[in-house]
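During the second year of the project, the team shifted from modelling isolated chains to modelling whole assemblies. The rationale, set out in the original proposal, was that interfaces cannot be judged from single-chain predictions alone. As a representative example for this report, we include one of the complexes processed in the last quarter. Its constituent sequences, exactly as entered into the pipeline, are reproduced here:
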Amino acid sequence: MMRPLNEEKVFKDPVHNYIHVQDTTIWRLINTAEFQRLRRIRQLGTSYFTFHGAEHSRFSHSLGVYEITRQIISLFERNQYADWPKEEKLLTLCAALLHDLGHGPFSHSIEEAFDMNHEDWTCRIILGDTEIHNILCEVDPELPAKVASVIAKTYDKAIVVNLVSSPLDADRMDYLLRDAYYTGVNYGTIDVDRIIRMLRPHDGRIVVKESGMHAVEDYLMSRYQMYWQVYFHPVTRSSEIMLRLIFRRAKELYNSGFQFEFMMKPIISLFEEQLSVEQYLKLDEALIQTAFMQWTTERDSLLSQLCERFMHRRLYKYVELESHNMDMINDVREAFIKAGLDPEYDLVVDLPSDLPYDIFRPGDEVSQKQILLLDRQDRLQEISEVSDIVRSISGLHRGKVHLYYPEEKLNAALSLFSPSITHIFI
Amino acid sequence: MMRPLNEEKVFKDPVHNYIHVQDTTIWRLINTAEFQRLRRIRQLGTSYFTFHGAEHSRFSHSLGVYEITRQIISLFERNQYADWPKEEKLLTLCAALLHDLGHGPFSHSIEEAFDMNHEDWTCRIILGDTEIHNILCEVDPELPAKVASVIAKTYDKAIVVNLVSSPLDADRMDYLLRDAYYTGVNYGTIDVDRIIRMLRPHDGRIVVKESGMHAVEDYLMSRYQMYWQVYFHPVTRSSEIMLRLIFRRAKELYNSGFQFEFMMKPIISLFEEQLSVEQYLKLDEALIQTAFMQWTTERDSLLSQLCERFMHRRLYKYVELESHNMDMINDVREAFIKAGLDPEYDLVVDLPSDLPYDIFRPGDEVSQKQILLLDRQDRLQEISEVSDIVRSISGLHRGKVHLYYPEEKLNAALSLFSPSITHIFI
Amino acid sequence: MMRPLNEEKVFKDPVHNYIHVQDTTIWRLINTAEFQRLRRIRQLGTSYFTFHGAEHSRFSHSLGVYEITRQIISLFERNQYADWPKEEKLLTLCAALLHDLGHGPFSHSIEEAFDMNHEDWTCRIILGDTEIHNILCEVDPELPAKVASVIAKTYDKAIVVNLVSSPLDADRMDYLLRDAYYTGVNYGTIDVDRIIRMLRPHDGRIVVKESGMHAVEDYLMSRYQMYWQVYFHPVTRSSEIMLRLIFRRAKELYNSGFQFEFMMKPIISLFEEQLSVEQYLKLDEALIQTAFMQWTTERDSLLSQLCERFMHRRLYKYVELESHNMDMINDVREAFIKAGLDPEYDLVVDLPSDLPYDIFRPGDEVSQKQILLLDRQDRLQEISEVSDIVRSISGLHRGKVHLYYPEEKLNAALSLFSPSITHIFI
Amino acid sequence: MMRPLNEEKVFKDPVHNYIHVQDTTIWRLINTAEFQRLRRIRQLGTSYFTFHGAEHSRFSHSLGVYEITRQIISLFERNQYADWPKEEKLLTLCAALLHDLGHGPFSHSIEEAFDMNHEDWTCRIILGDTEIHNILCEVDPELPAKVASVIAKTYDKAIVVNLVSSPLDADRMDYLLRDAYYTGVNYGTIDVDRIIRMLRPHDGRIVVKESGMHAVEDYLMSRYQMYWQVYFHPVTRSSEIMLRLIFRRAKELYNSGFQFEFMMKPIISLFEEQLSVEQYLKLDEALIQTAFMQWTTERDSLLSQLCERFMHRRLYKYVELESHNMDMINDVREAFIKAGLDPEYDLVVDLPSDLPYDIFRPGDEVSQKQILLLDRQDRLQEISEVSDIVRSISGLHRGKVHLYYPEEKLNAALSLFSPSITHIFI
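Output from the structure prediction step:
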């Protein structure tokens, strides 16, 4: 199914140096309107408020995931590994390239606010009346459905799904490297070449050669640190909270018949939960930012102030609670209400959480969420059985509850709080 | 005038590792709405169409220019150089931080299309009714005017102007490093620490110690290569041409009374050349992209097609002419007209040009545009008198004329061209 | 006591970019014969056999330790921390610069073979009749003794000792960065600027601000990975074993009156355990390599073969045992003897071990081996009480027993082994 | 002729990340005594006295040259370029790997002092009774002679010679990158991937695609800067001068029958110009340094002082002359003689020179020393005809005459000099 280009084409990339495109279909997919749209969706959402360098888009990341996948398959082919199904190459590359296609603007927040899911949208775009759909169809009428099933993790060859989504997939490898590069932190600098060299197609899935254990440990630790240093940074969480509060308020206003001075069609469709693929594709971060900027002068002062906060980076401040104490949180909420603050918009309780690695428990079935090591005798072992490091971080939930609030309002109310509540905020 | 923060604050930066903020005024300036707006203006305009990593904003760059200036002044102070006027520190740092404040969306194109100038806007914002103006005034009511005069290069102490704008200023040093980092090309990797170590305040201006000549050569060569490899890349030029054609067409339509389905107030003010500071501050790249996206469905097919080209990266193709032959260009234009193409919108002639370094000519006055070397006997020499390398690139204009055009229309018209014209395009 | 240079001097350094020398005494110490000798002692001993890039010397590392210490003190001074004893600056810098002065050729192996200790030699050189001693005396006749006591960890101000040797000292920070740079592995890339920013002089010792916990975790993990990936790499261990066997054999021969065709005075003194400082200073890696090269043609075939192995990198092969089973090891030794192999020279049992971090146990006194975190309420906590990551690696001993042997001899003997022994080696 | 390894092997390399070995012959060549010897020969001779990081060996560089060559050939094969003679692959790789095999200790100085040539030695080792010779013979009895002829540039297929030695060969690309990495200067950071992508086998030689012109310009400028910033650094030149004076003095003494307290056989053979391959292979930098260290206590004070200078880095100081004035140099020499200084050992006149690129002159034959660009019409042009940059640096000889001398002796004599001579030295 591969249709080689006459001449290999390259994109200059700061992370992989060059992205190599060797196939006509891949080249055409990149040049579709739907794929180019990813330039207007940032990879790390609002993280640029915390790390000003993190302004990179999902376009770059998608190319990176494609490139890592290409390198892995190229190594499999070079070494003629018997367990790699060669005929799946184009499908795998397409799925790798397109796996993030459905991300919306400020993805995590909008998904939470409107109960959407970017994977569903990826599949809708691939299967809908789009340029991407047409290009895939030209290769094979079954291809769009196949690509969608790989992304939905329902494709029947687990090894293909494995490359695109597993604890050690091309997606995670690229985002660690890329996010580290653009934020400037060095926690994400993993030896991706070494990890790639250690991967083996084996009995229908991707496993890791035993001698690659340390590289995998290092990768899991990098992931762990990136989560706590970057992805869950409280300033980023605060900006996501701003976003969610804006969406919530605007939808409330819309539902209550408020007349917006500025409104756009894709946003109406979003509020009405009737987004078509066509409207969704116009819903990029430029549009959201433009609406928010215009809303800074809407008559509803709650909305306009929230929009000002987001646009000018006047985020809610936060305190970290020592323990996850629901009684205390309820007390705080009560105190806010008594002091005349709004318990819905002036206080947000947040608990970030992540499992750096899902440990294997004896008796469990071998799942896609596990990393298996292949030893010299061709035996498989789940990595946390062998690595102290992995075992030690597997069960960790380090997240602590944070309270977010508008500083000025809180300061004005502090004198009305009881000492035990006041104490939390100073 | 400096008001030290209790505790030094830092921003993590991929280029300088950390940006150090030690003064309250600087901290407050960064947190203004006007400065935060720079997050929505890309440093390299449309270059991300050519180098997908180049998505960084003028916000990062402005912090970087501030940081380099801070490092230079810190070294001057540490070494107690007599010719450095210590009392100018805060003014210099403010001017460095704010020098790009007035950049509009896709700056070069919009300035060309509407005959605006970002330096004027920088001064209007600093002197207008803005948060920045107020913060500067609090320090000293004269400060806004002083900062503006440094940026306008009219401040009476040339040494301050020199640090902020000269052939070897903090601005150029940061953008070379930063643009190289984000594009991923390595042409811009200069040894900025070494250059900084070689700078000397001397007799009212900044000069370079003679032993730093090679570092300066390397810097000028980097600049030269970045111009031709990145800033003047024909794909980037093509995207800038798209932008200008869109602006031209939209303004034409507006002037002719066309009823836009989507229009926003700052754009109307732009067309009417009546932008207030307040409107200008809303005119960011998100707004422009949103307008263009909406215009992809306007009834004017020229406008809608141009917007589609820009949004989906379907740029005009180009050919490079071997020589700058006006007759040939006129012949091409004639042929386009005869073949029914639009000479205004279907053919754009472009000649990029840059002087990597303005050479000193005997008899010239010493200007701000020159780099002076200071030898051990405290004599000054203009660098191109000493360096073969600098002399050799000083007069270079390497730009070649390029013709840009819509590929499909041209292909359809090719058979109507005479062979000599056809020949140019294949 | 500081005597500033007229002009700051710099060394170009790949790790820190520039090493800054601002004091005359430091400059003069670097230019002594004893300090220059460190150019002929590799930082990582025989690791270059495993990682060919690891050819860097203790000279570079010593400059790096000095530079990090200088940066820490500079930050302490800039922030005017009350708990930093300013008068200790020169002493601390000298101790940082000189702390590795006494390292001999292939330090770890020679120390093990001849029961020497490089810290003792550092002190002997500083206190002996050397250029370094004279320069320190010129500043203050007490200075040599003080510098020696800091290095011997007996100096009465623990905070000075802390900067030079503690679990988070300038020594460890430099070697992680430097060894990672020269080997090319990325396990050692720590954010040293951030760690430095988090250090606080506090109540007579150096502690870490609580918000720096993650940076410290990352640093400890880097150290852990470097130990197992680089410092304890079995190929490096094998080359160290070669070295020790050569030293053992040569000393045996010398003691037995063997007439060496090639012998040098410092080696005789080494064998006779009568090394003077003067002789020790001549005992560099060039001399050891020259002796070994000449000994490749000595009449004792055991010695000459071992030397050939070392010089031409024909190292012993190894197997890793699944468990530390003394009975099995004894069985192997028996089998070697029965098969006519030499149990002293043909079989080496090796168990590398390291404690990545010494955990605090309730009831223990606070020791120099602990990293203390300082929270906002000025309370101190030992890091493993707070960090799951640190706790999880604190007690880890991952080392496994390896057997090293000459492959050809083993292969020739394999048929004489019982199957259970044979099984270990294939 | 290729004999693939069962499994590709890799070396971790800081410059190329991994060196890939896929062929048995290459693997065996690397493991010979002769190739391992390159670990004891520094790539940059005495440059570590100027840039302390520059302690890397010719071993690393040789692997790097091999790796770049492997990548070039791999690209040629992948793109199935018709003009690449596939059957020459192993020969080319062997020649790339072995091209520096004959380098002696502190190569440039020893070659100058004893009129030797490392290429001759490379060929003698390849053709002599060595492990390398035997391994090559096993593949093909003609192979040693072929490899030698490629290195001697007499092999009849110019394209093979081109890859190994030409102005744009793998050798130069690796040393620029590697020397920049280890010294820490950034002048040598070229985009080697891009250059490789632009190379084309064409009509019996390697040419460059026209669109690669800028990458080649950048490469030539890097080379130019590295020459003047690193390779010709006056401190390095001074250390090379020390070396040559030591060799000269020691040989004089030997010839005059002086009884050395310390002498080694390879040095005697060197002095008698009767070095066998066997002796030459023992003549590494460890041996030279050991001899020099021992000679610091020889009875001849000139020799012992020169050796002290070299071992303890007490190099001759230097002045740069404004012009190359032979009369002035003669006057200086006279003054030295009159003042009782030794015109042979106390004054060294040095003029470094390099041609960054040999320009093509109309009428010249196309030579191996030229870089040819291939345009879209398959026409070849010599690069300096097209590139202003290359033309401008082609003829440059920037070297200035330097005088080197022992500072203390000169200072003692200064009062005896006439003012015009004194003036030169202050």
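The mean pLDDT of chain C is 92. Residues 297 and 304 of chain C are 6 Å apart (CA to CA).
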